[in-house]
Amino acid sequence: MKTAQPIDNRERVLLVGVGLKKAPRGRAGDPTSSGRESLEELQELAESAGAKIEASLLQVRDALDPATLVGRGKLEEIRIEAEMRHVPLVIVDHDLTPGQLRNFEKGVGRRVIDRTQLILDIFATHARTREGQLQVELAQLNYLLPRLTGRGEELSRLGGGIGTRGPGEQKLETDRRRIRDRVRKIQESIETVRRQRATRRQARHAQPLGMIALVGYTNAGKSTLFNALTHADVLTSSKMFATLDPTVRAVKLPSRRKVLLSDTVGFLRDLPPDLIAAFRATLEEVQEAALIIHVSDISNPHHTEHDADVLKILDDLGVRDRLRLNVFNKIDQLSADDLAALKKSNEKRENAVFTSAVSGAGLDELLIRIDAMMPVDPLVHLHLRIPVSDGRHLSLVHACGRVLQSQVLDGHMDIEAELPESLARRLEDFLWPSPAL
Q1: CB 224 within 8 A of CB 358
Q2: The pLDDT value given to residue 214
Q3: Rounded CA separation 285/263 (Å)
Q4: Where are the beta strands (DSSP E) in 134-269?
Q5: How far apart, in Å, are the Cα atoms of 160 and each of 125, 139, 238, 254, 352?
């Protein structure tokens, strides 16, 4: 008896890449090779969105065609390829203007989405928190608003599937006024959630714990490293942009100090400004950090270019000069010879650590290095008397200090402890004997 084969319901797509013979500023090398690398990344993105890649085409041009991006001749070639392979969707590895998008769809007779819309689709799939979902919807509406003209028929058919998750047909009516009203309401909701996040951040700042942010190219292994250091269970996946919503956990360093570690959204080359703005809340954790840990997938042959893209976004956030530690992750995927050569080439770099978040290799050294780089908050010896009813300050002492001895006297907790100096200053009213005496 034959076993029934599972039905593959993934949407079949054709990928189209466009490269320039003159490499963009800051990117050296063969334009064809660079275009193929970008097309490979687009394939990862498309597969993360649930697509089945039927074929890919790459064109290298002197300049981009202002009307169709690829030119009429190439457009006809794409149409024939899509028809031969019975592909209903074409994904273009470039951002299309509203006019280019309309001309492209007309020329190939297929639904077309560009790189930004594909990324938005993935964001819509992975956003879990209320704020993340609102931010994705806002970015989608802002992206689609200028593209409504002449697309009423296509928009009326929007439903599930690649490039169409999120708002759906009810929120994408051709009535611009209604869309703008929805945008305004989303912005108000996001500001409400953002104020709540700011309040939680203030509460964290009330405790003398330094903030550390993990940053890196998407799929560099940040969430796996985060889980290994904090013993958390944040979602880890080989799919791109598996982490969108910020997660913060405490980590105990070898010196017994505690710090806060934040996992952030993965970066990507040429990430559109609207997408960066959409996830400002995640990136605020980076701007608040005393130390930035830049995680690189050292097993990826393009890790140097990826690192450059991350640094560019850190520049845009105004934190390029922030104290930074480089973590070369996924060393378990390197051969012994390659790893030895890598360590030798970086032996003079004091701010580099080699790790495998999967095997745990290098994690102890990473914690030691973090401990050495974080701003010092010296311990001071104190004698405190805190009312038993004051649970907030009592929990601060126990959470952030080392209690040497304690006893209850006359409704107060009499405590001898070693505490960080920053916390000691906030507990001056509880010193015993009182400074006023």
Answers
A1: yes
A2: 92
A3: 9
A4: 210-216, 247-252, 258-263
A5: 11, 18, 23, 49, 44
Residue 311 and residue 294: Cα distance in Å, rounded? Answer: 9
Q: Residue 394, Cα to own-chain centre: how many angstroms?
A: 36
Alpha carbon separation from 214 to 161, 305, 381 (Å, rounded): 31, 18, 33
Note the pLDDT tens digit of each residue in 326-350: 999 999 999 999 888 888 888 777 7
Model confidence, pTM: 0.71
**Are the C-beta atoms of residues 329 and 221 closer than 8 Å to each other?**
yes
Structural contact between residues 158 and 172, judged by C-beta atoms closer than 8 angstroms: yes
Q: What is the token pair recorded at 190?
A: 């996001």
pLDDT digits (tens, 9 = 90+) for 334-393: 999 988 888 888 877 778 899 999 999 999 999 999 999 987 777 788 899 999 999 888
Task: Yes or no: say if 169 and 155 are a contact pair by the CB < 8 Å rule.
Answer: yes
- CA dist., res. 363 & res. 228, Å (int): 8
DSSP H or E run through 15: strand 11-20
Residue 294 tokens read as: 């830049």
Residue appearing with tokens 């090779």: 33
Structure tokens at 288: 């608040």
